[in-house]
Amino acid sequence: MGFKKEPLHLEFVKLSHHGSIRNINKDFFDLIRSNQYIICNHSPVSKKLSNKETIAQIAFYGKTTKNNETKQVLITKKSPMHLNFDESDHEKFNFEIIYQADIWKY
After folding, report:
1. What is the rounded distance in angstroms from the CA atom of residue 31 to the CA atom of residue 79?
2. Which domain holds residue 35?
C-alpha cells in the first residue's frame, strides 16, 4: 500500500550512516525518486566511508523524479573512495559527484 505502488518523490535523500553500503539496496531505490543524494562523511570515524559501492548503487539504481535528469551525489568531504569513477561512468549512468563541505554542519 502507499508508496510501494507509487514511489515517493523527494527533493533530496540524506543517506544514513555516512553512506555505508550496508544501509541501502535496490529495493530502497525502488521506493523513492530523487535527483539529489546527500552523504555526510565529515567525522573521523567516517574516513573510509562512503563506500564506492554506495555511489555505484545510486548511479545504477537511483531513479530521478523525471526521466533523463542527472542524479547528483552531494558529499561533504572528499575521500579516495570517490575517485574510482571516470567521465564515462558519469555519462553512462547520468550522475555527478559534488563536494559541498557546508551541506551539513553537525
Report:
1. 28
2. 9-99
Q: What are the residues whose beta carbons fall under 8 Å from the beta carbon of 70, sequence distance 6 or more? A: 35, 64, 94, 95, 96
State the pLDDT at residue 36: 93
Question: For position 2, what pLDDT does the model report?
Answer: 54
Gyration radius (Cα) of the chain, Å = 13
Whether the Cβ atoms of residue 87 and residue 97 lie closer than 8 Å to each other: no
Q: Is residue 91 part of a domain?
A: yes
Q: What are phi and psi of 7, to 5 degrees?
A: -60, 150
Contact 97, 82 (CB under 8 A): yes
Domain contains 58: yes
Residue 21 falls within a domain, yes or no? yes
Number of structural domains in the chain: 1
